[in-house]
Amino acid sequence: NYSITAEQQDLIPLASALHDIGKISIPERILQKTSQLTPEEYEIMKTHVENSTKMIRYLPHMDYVIPAVLGHHERYDGTGYPRGLAGEDIPYMARILTIADCFDAMTARRPYKKPLSVSYAISELKKNSGTQFDPELSMKVKLQYSAVWAIRCSLLKYSIITNQKSVPENLLSRFSGTLFISVSLSFRLIT
After folding, report:
1. What is the pLDDT of residues 123-169, one digit of tens each?
2. What pairs with residue 176 in β-bridges?
3. This prediction's pTM
4. Can you list the positions of beta strands (E) in 141-187?
5. d(CA 68, CA 131)
6. Buried b vs exposed e over 41-78: b needs ≥16 C-beta within 10 Å?
C-alpha cells in the first residue's frame, strides 16, 4: 500500500531534519574530505546512522522517527546498511527518505563535488529503481518543478539585486536544504 497517512506526512520533514544528526560524531576531517573515503573512513561514516538513532532517543516523544532514520541508507536490493534490509522489509518512510536524501546529495554542493542538475538526479532515481530505490516510489516521485524553479529564480534575482556575479555559497547550501524538504513534501502528492 503506497498511501501516506497524515501522521506519516508530518513525520517526513522531521525525519528529514534529524536523519543525519549523528554526523556530529564523525570527525571533521572525514566530513570535509575532498577525495574518496578510505574503507576505514567509510566504516566510520556509516556509524552516523546508529549515532543518529541514539541521539533521537534522548528527544522527548521522537522515537517514532527512528525507523525512517535507521533505514535511510538501506537499499531496495538488500546491499545497504546498517542492517542489510531489502524490499518492503525496509520501513516505508525510510524508503521515501532514501529517495529524498539521495536526490539532495546529488543536487547539493559538497566538499568533494559540484551539484548535479535536477534532470540528471531524476534520471539517476529512475536508473537505480529496484536496486537502490523502491521501484514503485521512485516512479511516483512528483518533484515540484515550479517550487524548484521559483527558488532558483529567487536566488538569481537576489544576485542581480545585490549586484553579485554569482549566488553566495550560504544561499546555495540553504537552497539544497530547501530542495530536500520540497522533495520530501512532494511525496504527499503520491496518494
Report:
1. 898 899 999 999 988 877 655 555 555 555 555 555 555 555 555 55
2. none
3. 0.78
4. none
5. 18
6. eeeebbbbbebbbebbeeeeeeeebbbbbbbbbbbbee
